[in-house]
Write a structure and sequence with these properties.
Oligomer: single chain
CATH class of the largest domain: Alpha Beta
CATH superfamily of the largest domain: Pseudouridine synthase
Largest sheet: 12 strands, mixed
Order of helices and strands: EEHEEHEEEEEEHEEH
Number of helices: 4
Strand content: 25-35%
Structural class: mainly beta
Shape: globular
Number of domains: 2
CATH topology of the largest domain: Pseudouridine synthase
CATH architecture of the largest domain: 2-Layer Sandwich
Radius of gyration: 18 Å
Number of strands: 12
Mean pLDDT: 92
Helix content: 10-25%
């Protein structure tokens, strides 16, 4: 069952499990491949035909996922995502490596445990899997703040706060930091210790587009994270 974190007449925020699609896919041939919207509609038939998508989380990423229930807020939400008006906090497990920024990014080291990555991102061409790379200049600037919350024998436990919302931004920025996320088969985080990308959308904070109330919604860490911490 999908956990509902917040709901009113306009919005519904849920805790998306890992291995659930954000959007429809040609691979969606059985219930385990149904996108989050259809899973919610099966769980809550009263919402069928009412839900609108405004963002996405990667298939293997868990955590806070927002949908609207009313067309009255769709335009406002679209503008809010375009203008980066949401404050997002992600948690992840990364390889226990020294911080070594790549040559095509700007790295601001704030302390022994925190740093910021700035770069321009673009899709890599000619690859079977979708992948983003750093380029010297472009139309997609990206910025992420990182803080190491704790370190163990095998990995760092990291908080990531993206200031922009580019595809694979956190994953690519951690690769550029020499700290790929555990389980990230695309960005160098292959690990036998985990079965999926260890990235969790922990918090989404924003001003409600209708009531103007400040909301801060958190999704508890899933069991596979807790077992490693």
């Amino acid at each position: 069952m999908i956990s509902i974190l917040f709901e009113d007449d306009y919005l519904i925020l849920v805790n998306k499990p890992a291995m659930v699609l954000s959007q429809p896919s040609i691979r969606a041939s059985n219930n385990t491949k149904l996108p989050i919207k259809e899973l919610i509609e099966k769980q809550r038939p009263d919402l069928k035909g009412m839900l609108f998508l405004h963002h996405r989380l990667d298939y293997e990423t868990s955590g806070v996922f927002l949908m609207s229930k009313s067309s009255l807020v769709n335009k406002s939400l679209t503008e809010m995502f375009t203008n980066h008006s949401f404050h997002k906090v992600y948690l992840c497990l990364s390889k226990l490596h020294e911080l070594k920024p790549g040559k095509k990014v700007t790295c601001e080291i704030k302390s022994e445990t925190s740093w910021k990555i700035n770069n321009y991102m673009a899709p890599a061409h000619g690859l079977k899997q979708k992948r983003m790379i750093s380029v010297k200049a472009g139309k997609w600037p990206a910025e992420t703040d990182f803080t190491v919350l704790s370190s163990k024998d095998r990995f760092h436990y990291i908080e990531a706060v993206p200031k922009t919302g580019r595809t694979h931004q956190i994953r690519q920025h951690l690769q550029e930091s020499n700290r790929s996320i555990l389980g990230d088969m695309i960005y160098g985080g292959k690990s036998e210790d985990v079965k999926r990308l260890m990235l969790h959308a922990f918090n989404l904070s924003f001003i409600h587009p209708k009531t103007k109330e400040k909301l801060s919604i958190e999704a508890p860490l899933p069991q596979d994270f807790l077992e490693l911490l």
